[in-house]
Amino acid sequence: MDSDRDRDPSRRRPQGEERRRRRESHGEHEKPERRRRGESRGEHAVYDQEGRRRKGHRATDSQGDLLPKPARRSRHQSDTEQELPNPRKARQSRRNSTTDGSGSRSRGSAPLSLDALAKLDKKNAKKAGGWGAYDYDDEYLREVREKEKNLEKDRVKEVRAEKKKENREEENRRRAGESDAAVQEEKARRRREERRKAAEIRKSQTEDELEKKRSANTEDEREERRRRRESKHTPSEAEERRERRRYEKQHRTEQKKRRVVSGPLAEEGGVDEEEYQYMMEKRGGAGSGPPTVFTEDELARKKKRKRIIIGVVSVLILLAIIIPVGVLLSKKSSGNNDPQSNPAATASEPRTSNLDGHDRNSVPDADRGGILDPWAWWDTQDFNVTYTNELVGGLPIIGLNSTWNDDVQANPSVPKLKDSFNYGKMPIRGVNVGGWLNLEPFITPSFFEKFGSKDNIVDEWTLLSKLGPAKSKDTLEKHYSSFISKQTFTDIRNAGMDHVRFPFGYWIVQIYDDDVYVPQVAWRYLLRGIEYCRQNGLRVNLDLHGAPGSQNGWNHSGRQGQINWLNGTDGDKNGQRTLDIHHKLSVFFAQDRYKNVVTMYGLVNEPRNVELDTQKVVAWTQKAIDQIRSDGIKGIIVFGDGFMGLDNWQGKLQGNDNLLLDVHQYVIFNTDQLKLKHRDKLNFACEAWTQQSKRSMDRTTGFGPTMCGEWSQADTDCTQYINNVATGTRWEGTFDTGNPSSSVLRPQCPLGTSQCSCNGANADPKDYSDQYKKFLLQFAVAQMDSFEAAWGWFYWTWETEQATQWSYRRGLAAGILPPKAYDRAWSCPADADALDNFDGLSELY
Fold first, then answer.
1. One of 606, 732, 788, 799 is an active-site residue; which one?
2. pTM
């Protein structure tokens, strides 16, 4: 930092000009080389008003002290070598060493005189090679020293003022402590009195028994937690953990004995572990230093923090109780009376215990984390986890056991699996497991209702697009693992059924292009589900529910919107892709292990022929049949009616053996049927659908072999999301598709007025009237009777989160389905006049 004299030209010393004239008179002109060497050493060059260089001043520090001049060194000398000793620096060091701990000088020390400083400076200048960097006069030196002296005085004043301030504060604290002592004593006395009264009240209680009970419960809980933790470790690891716990317990006991607490805190009955740790930190660790007496403010802060923590924990516990109760009540209001847990709720822990004892290194690095790696699966129960990369038809067999047993009978009405099922003479009584291997919003609304209208999450495609690949896989595999379980198939058997229809999307085999579906993860769950069917004597109907490009544009095909299967720019390509999917599937299920259990093979679910070229659909169907037969499938092949009407299939595809026409019957999607009164709906099921089945079974009026692959007992379209996400109902006249030609904006309940309401249909089944339960039961049985006039039926569906009238399991629990599907106490009367009138049943819902 330059001095004031350097910054003010008017204060430059006149002696410098006189010396220059004297040097010029003696020929002592400064050489350019010397000037450059001086500047390179860090000397400051100064020029006069005429632009001539004069010898500069040395740089000074913030207090006016001159900085030492760099020592000269040879070009071979290292930068790290020590500089020449500097007298001024040594003097400053001596001056600093005379200060006390507070920074002020001790008495008896005094600065050097001005003459002594001048002599030292001149001596140093000669050693440094001349006066080049020490060109200043006595007046300037005196000014610098005066500035230094003033700065020192200011510093001493500040130190003294700070010390006085500290003394005053210490005195104030001492006085406050004396006044607080009386207050603390009074508080302590009151607390002692309160504790005495409380002790008298508790005297009548058996404190020892309560304490023993609490201790026993605590020890039991600790032992259970310890046992669970140690079960995850080897015996040596468990022993090590037990030894460590014994040491920690002993250490805690010793620490408690060494606790030293302040008087006020002891009056409160001691300290908890958190407060003790806080005190130890204040003392610098347990057992080190004298005990610390805490002020009332510190104790108050600690207590306040403890109360806040207790309050937060209490609120969380209350929320943990209130929220599940609220959810349960909400589910009940939507028709969920089931005592079991929500089937869509995924397990919090993976089920992989049967991996114990298997070698993780048996899986090659190339297959780690993929579908062939059991250690990457969420659920391995009832799977064979021995690694294999064997494929059949390009599909993995990992997870399958090498042996199976077909000597199983579902119920007395049907043969064992090893014996042939006499289709066409024995009625099929089955159920779908829809919404499991491909999502459907009304079956599992919990996946969709968490999003807003702006998200536009309406099907599996948009849901997975929102979740992203990693979360999609995790979410869906947990759903596959829990929504349908081993118990499901036991319950289906106990309900008196003999067949199960498995809907799935093409992504169970592979994905294409920009598909967001989770590929192949559902495959092993399909195989496990088939094995569960085998164990219960249930036969299987495979159903390709979603084809590449979407065969109908509905959400259960995987992607709602356009129909790009056999339609549009990529229609033919998607048709071929569907054939490729079937080739892999048919080769796989042509194995001997499936010939008795997979007896029905579906081509594609609900192709929307009314929006497609029917001739292309028929040609594709024949091509698929030929391919599947050549791949070795000998069972029943199923194709959909495409909403063309059963009579219109007369004369088509009739040259194929073991080909079955599949029709899906619902009264709720057709406004003419929806607005029928309860008795008329029942009569329609008994009469119209029975006659329709018989006509279709007659090759002269229909195709021939016919069955109903989907139906339900719902008599309204009030179920949440049954008409797509965020779409209203025909029943109430709020069905708005955005297209005037397809929207239904006038109420379609039998009364056809604004009084039409979905409240009754969506009520909890326990609130159903006896008349309504009677109707629902008879409506279900009437459909069973009608469809058994053909080859039989599959109810849609077994499980839902909350829609009772669409869930066979929930319908059984509500008493609106027969306990045994093959043993029904009611049947359609021969005369429609014998039907109940249901006069007391409201037609508003």
1. 606
2. 0.63
**What would the pLDDT profile of 614-667 be if each residue is shown by its tens digit?**
999 999 999 999 999 999 999 999 999 999 999 999 999 999 999 999 999 999
Q: Do 743 and 314 contact (CB within 8 A), yes or no? A: no
Residue type, 338: D
Q: Structural domains in the chain?
A: 1-71+84-204 (no CATH), 353-834 (3.20.20.80)
Q: How far is CA 449 from the centre of its chain?
A: 16
Is-contact 708 665, C-beta < 8 A?
A: yes
Q: Which own/partner contact pairs does 595-599 have at CB distance under 8 Å and 24+ positions apart?
A: 595/634, 595/635, 596/406, 596/417, 596/418, 597/406, 597/417, 597/530, 597/533, 597/534, 597/538, 597/539, 597/540, 598/530, 598/539, 598/540, 598/542, 598/635, 599/421, 599/539, 599/540, 599/541, 599/635, 599/636
Told to judge if 710 belongs to the known catalytic residues of this protein, a careful annotator would answer: yes
For residue range 474-516, what is the model confidence (pLDDT) as tens digits? 999 999 999 999 999 999 999 999 999 999 999 999 999 999 9
Q: Which of 710, 732, 788, 801 is catalytic?
A: 710
Cα 646 to Cα 697: distance, rounded to the nearest angstrom: 9
Query: Which candidate, 836, 813, 840, places its Cα nearest to that of 826?
Result: 836
Phi/psi of residue 707, nearest 5 degrees = -140, 170
Question: Which tops the pLDDT comparison, 212 or 258?
Answer: 212
- Residue 296 a catalytic site member: no
C-alpha to C-alpha distance for 824 and 101, rounded to whole angstroms:
103
